[in-house]
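We store sequence with structure; for instance:
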Amino acid sequence: MGLRTSQASSAPLSKDLRNFLDYVDNRDVENDEYVDELKDYIHNLSKNTEWRNEYLDNQTHMMFHDEDVREEGIAAGKMEAIRGMIALMRNNGIAEEKLKPQIQTQFDLTDAQMQELFK
């Protein structure tokens, strides 16, 4: 799906801007000095192994960072749900001594996690 530059505005666009937007939208642009220069620059960058490796390292780092953040969010949500369940069970008169081993087994929690939940 393209940028739909023709629908972006009713105001007329300059030829240079139209060519640039067409290039960004992966359309062929011919006889435009700026677009040709941009193509050459990007082509040269893609041949530069140091830059490419640095770019890929950055992309990989960002991907793993996003995955770590997502996992942290899931873990935090799980712990919050368990806290809510503990509160409900307490409100229904279930003794903590009976509750703790069941919670730890059911959710495969460490002793440190259990201490955090039952403080």
Q: What stands out?
A: The helical segments are 5-8, 15-24, 33-47, 49-91, 96-107, 111-117. The chain has six helices and no strands.
